[in-house]
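[job 0412] stage=fold_complex status=start
inputs:
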Amino acid sequence: MKLAGLFLLVAGWIIALAAVALFSSATPRAWFVLAGVAVELLGLALVFHSHLELRKERG
Amino acid sequence: MPVPSLPEATALLCIFSILLVPFAGAGLALINTGLGRSRSAAHSMMAALCVFAVAAIVYFFCGFAWQGFMGRSAHVFMMGGKPWNWIASEPFFFRGLQLDGSPASLAAWMQMLCVGLAALIPLGSGADRWRLGAICISTALLAGCVYPLFAHWVWGGGWLAQLGVNYGLGHGFMDVGGASSIQVLGGFTALAIAWILGPRRGKYSMEGMPTAFPGHNIVFVLFGCLLALVGWIGLNSAGAILFIGVEPGRIVLIAVNTTLAAASATLTAAIITRVRFGKPDASLSANGWVSGLVASSAACALISPAAAVMIGLAAGALVTFAVELFELRLALDDPGGAISVHAIGGIWGILALGFFAHFPTRALNNVAGSTASSAGNGAPGQWLAQLVGIATLLGFVLPLTYGLNWLLNRIYPQRVAMEGERQGMDLHELGAGAYPEFITHTEEFMQR
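[job 0412] stage=fold_complex status=done
writing structure:
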């Protein structure tokens, strides 16, 4: 799960980069960058969750 | 365009500002030590010294070669017809760099200190259980790989700085005093270290409830805050001169803004803790102070004093809740509050620049064509450039620093053996305690 979270962090960054490089108008670019950051936050939440699960397993 | 040379008075002011930077390191070292336990105090200070030493040597060896300075040689690739400058291509060991007071040489000297400052931050989250050898290797990875790469993107004329020129996002990603490249980068490394090391023995009960381990010397912590202010004024001033080319007179504004941000943040933290717990909490107020300094770093040269107070108010409030969130809800044992102070405070500071900054000239960020808006106004798209910078920190820096430290942990376990934690890091790793005349309490906070 931690790996999936880290993967989402990188994926979100790539979405943000792609938005900057591919869109020329401001509005879709801004929305896609925000979407990229949202994916990153999801990834971060997943990494934190896996950390909590690991802590519970180890007691 | 690169700054070809600095007027003599500006260069002297820059040198004086850089001379103040080690005070920030001394302040952070004292804060980390004070918030840790008495039986690890000598280890904490020794680790801070080693971190500065390793960071300086590794940065001299290869760090500057990969960070470079704007206008100097770099590797660039083309994407969609636009140049993406991603890493510098300087020779190793400062070869090719004239140490003569030129902007590049001043930047190299300043960065040698800044990389040490960034590497000091994780000491706060790894306190009382992080082995000295592992600290040194982890610092080498930060100073030789993670820091130079990201700092090149921000300060070396890299693709983040060029977002304004290439894609019309304001003046490109901007960070005057290192809120991103020093503070958030250090804060994310602190997060990675806290994940990898796990909590201190006895920190959480079987039910997951945290036990309070009060810092052993709050006087160190509060004195460290005052020292850090001096260092931060130097850091922000030197960064503003070297990376956005402010005129010397603007240093007054930078000093005022830095002080106001720290002051409002600490008062906010004190008031919040007074309201919530009945008495102001000294360690959280100190964390508020540093988080105000951290948040001021990004925009200190580009905001009004009133905006600095606003930034500080938010930073002080954020840090008190972030410390609680990480400790209670997310089971992260961060004795020095490094993640809340540096990562959260830094991210807020970076974002705040997009909302509060006013751009006095049309030659900011020292990147050719960085002319997004008319003088005196905010730049359209600046907030988006700042957001792309934050996305890069989250999506590139955090996975990279976590990956490198995870790999290091597989090869060379970073956490001290259980016996060492029980005995205290001072005796276990250094063979002598910080306070030999006092009885060392070894098990006072252990769960029974």
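[job 0412] summary: The mean pLDDT of chain B is 92.
[job 0412] exit 0
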